[in-house]
Amino acid sequence: MSTPSPASQPAKPRKVPRRPASRLAEKWTRFDDVDVFYRESPNPPKDARVMAHVHGFGLSGRYLLPTAEQLADEFHTYVPDLPGFGRSGKRRDMLDIPDLARAARDFLDDRGVEKATLVGNSMGCPVIIEFAHTFPERIDRAVLVSPAGGIFNQPLRRAIGQLSADAPREPVRMARVAVPDYVRFGVPSTMRMFRALTQYPSLPRLLEMRIPTLVVLGQRDPLLPHAHRIDEVASQTDSHVLVVLLEGAAHAINFSHPGQLAHVIRLFMDDKPIVNDPAWPGHLRLYEVHRGKHHPRPRA
After folding, report:
1. Using CA atoms, how far apart are residues 118 and 240, in angstroms rounded to an integer?
2. pLDDT in tens, 116-141
3. 3-state class of 286 per DSSP?
4. C-alpha 28, offset from chain centre
């Protein structure tokens, strides 16, 4: 369980929406001269494992809330807006993957968290991979949902086409969350962040990770190569990676399928077999498509 750092100086609160977007507590802190907005479990269980959720490209943590809320009663949950994103302040040097990984580390330092499981979506996945590469002693496990970046998303026009194909596959209400975030993020930041994201060596770094790592892919996600291609690459190494495919899901799984994602995260955290919930509709099914040689074997 985490304890806030006594050196942390809470930032002056900014104007907040009339209705909170979540039942998680909304809070502010300040580090490196930047006001940082975050959400946290209001009453985490004593000695609960810490879990921090890392948002994607141009977005705030708001779209991660449906999944984070489902896990907030079991884990001490944090959902920060990293510096430069969402309601947090901006820093000139905060628009590449290593900088964002350091910002995630600084946030955990500020909250007095020594070690955590990190759950990311899209761009949040390379941020977590870099975090694990640079600060391996600070991460217990990694959950990478719809990892983005690399050659499959290049050039920019291809990525824009993939995003356009994904939009109608997501819930309509996702636009009400995403569009204001993208507008706030701005075009110059988008161009710089895109270059940093697509140049980052996500796959080699992923296969070098030495912690249990769950990768969750949506069967209908146009931003990713087919799951079996990823399985083919991953199976060439003695990895710690578990790859799971979710039928019926596209890219923003944390928002569109929170119940299913929370279910598979719970199984992963306790090293249980990846099984479907019989209460799910028939079009929603999980498939384990790869389990690396060094990933923990499932326990009964």
Report:
1. 15
2. 999 999 999 999 999 999 999 999 99
3. strand
4. 20
Residue 204 has pLDDT above 70, yes or no: yes
Strand ranges across the sheet with 213-218 = 25-31, 34-40, 76-80, 50-54, 116-121, 139-145, 213-218, 241-246, 286-291
Q: Under a CB-based contact definition with an 8 Å cutoff, are residues 150 and 134 in contact?
A: no
What's CA 120's distance to the chain center, in Å? Answer: 1
**pLDDT single digits (tens) 216-225:** 999 888 877 7
**pTM (global) more than 0.90:** no
Residue 170 amino acid letter:
E
For residue 179, the one-letter residue type is: V
- Determine the Cα–Cα distance for residues 212 and 274; give it in Å rounded to an integer: 14
Reported as a pLDDT band with limits 50, 70 and 90, residue 16 is very low
Q: 115 vs 156, which has greater pLDDT? A: 115
Task: Quote the DSSP letter at residue 153.
Answer: G
Structure tokens at 199: 């140049």
Note whether 40 and 10 are within 8 A (CB): no
Q: Which residues contact 44 (CB under 8 A, 6 or more apart)?
A: 1, 72, 75, 76, 77
The neighbour count for residue 171, using CB atoms within 10 Å, is 14
Residue 271 banded pLDDT, cuts 50, 70, 90: very high
Lookup result for tokens 């929170």 = 258
Q: What tokens does 244 get? A: 């799971």
Alpha helix positions (H), the chain: 65-71, 97-110, 124-134, 156-166, 173-185, 187-199, 202-208, 227-234, 253-256, 258-269
| Residue where the block lists tokens 């790869």 | 290
